[in-house]
Write a structure and sequence with these properties.
4-stranded antiparallel beta sheet; 6-stranded mixed beta sheet
């Protein structure tokens, strides 16, 4: 097993931002007791379905999430998995939309449908940019089974955190999924816009979870070099209710090795010493992207995490308020 420090790779004129508008395509959202060959199985409860139109959900408007937060009748079973499906039929990709403003090297840029980003002039509004994803299903796990003994009404809420979910950069798109690369301008410069997956975190009977964000960075670097983030939804008694990993970008950030910080966490295990064993799901069900075998709540340093390539990295974590 190889042991490496986090790979250093600065991002030149690349920065995260919170979009003013995100429309994410969702064909179905299913709660299930099992997953079989990547599909919801066992007892399956459909929470949302789209059979016509563009199937866009406006994630800057929480109205639809509030509609899912109502009490629903659920068949008996121990429900563990939430599957979001965004493609229809045999298609292997889908398009989402976003708009927003990003600061690059001290200058404001707005999203643009052909150039990706353009300098903002006055109060010019951001325009809609299409971003293409090449993964069709996204998996989340409830941290505790939603156990139903008979057909009763249960409350399940899906939480979405859009903070810094997108990023803009001067240059070509560096990811094959979730990006839009603009046309080259007259000055020979091109811009790209990308977005992570807006993970829908299922939480049962907890009306007011709080969000803790942990910036992850190399153990031998400063906190402003963080290139990844672990986002945890917490109960009032500090139990982990769910969460996900997210890429973050700034003028000083450095890439966290080859690890993919864009997927939801699996069910968390508590170690004998009180630390947490946290894994994020891979694009295929049953695989793992990032593994934190002994994660502490609060700031900590000189720990290890594993990337999906099996390489271990020394890291520090700093909680961001």
């Amino acid at each position: 097993m190889m042991l490496l420090s986090v790979m250093a790779m600065g991002y030149d004129k690349e920065n995260s931002f919170t979009p003013s508008m995100v429309k994410f395509r969702v064909e179905s959202i299913d709660l299930s007791t099992a997953i079989d060959r990547g599909q919801p199985a066992g007892q399956v409860m459909n929470l949302f379905s789209c059979t016509q139109g563009d199937c866009f959900l406006n994630l800057t408007n929480n109205q639809w999430l509030e509609q899912l937060s109502v009490f629903r009748q659920i068949k008996a079973g121990d429900y563990r998995y939430l599957t979001v499906t965004s493609c229809s039929g045999n298609t292997q990709s889908f398009v989402a939309e976003l708009a927003g403003t990003v600061n690059l090297d001290g200058n404001q840029y707005i999203t643009h449908p052909t150039q990706g980003l353009i300098p903002r002039v006055g109060a010019a509004p951001a325009q809609v940019v299409p971003v293409t994803f090449n993964h069709c299903q996204f998996y989340n796990e409830l941290q505790v089974d939603l156990s139903v003994q008979d057909s009763i009404e249960e409350q399940l809420t899906l939480y979405v955190d859009m903070n810094n979910i997108a990023w803009g950069r001067q240059g070509i798109a560096t990811m094959g999924s979730g990006c839009f690369q603009g046309e080259e301008g007259d000055n020979g410069i091109l811009y790209s816009v990308c977005m992570g997956v807006p993970h829908m975190v299922p939480i049962h009977n907890e009306p007011s979870p709080t969000v803790e964000r942990y910036n992850i960075y190399s153990a031998d670097k400063q906190s402003n070099t963080a290139g990844g983030q672990l986002v945890l939804f917490m109960s009032p008694n500090q139990s982990i209710l769910g969460g996900f990993a997210r890429r973050i970008f700034s003028n000083t950030s450095e890439k966290n090795g080859d690890s993919n910080f864009d997927t939801a966490i699996k069910r968390v295990q508590i170690n004998d010493d009180g630390t947490y064993d946290i894994k994020t799901t891979g694009h295929e069900f049953g695989t793992t992207m990032v593994h934190f075998p002994s994660f502490n709540l609060g700031d900590h340093d000189n720990k290890l995490y594993y990337g999906d390539n099996g390489v271990r990295y020394h890291y520090r974590a700093k909680i961001i308020q």
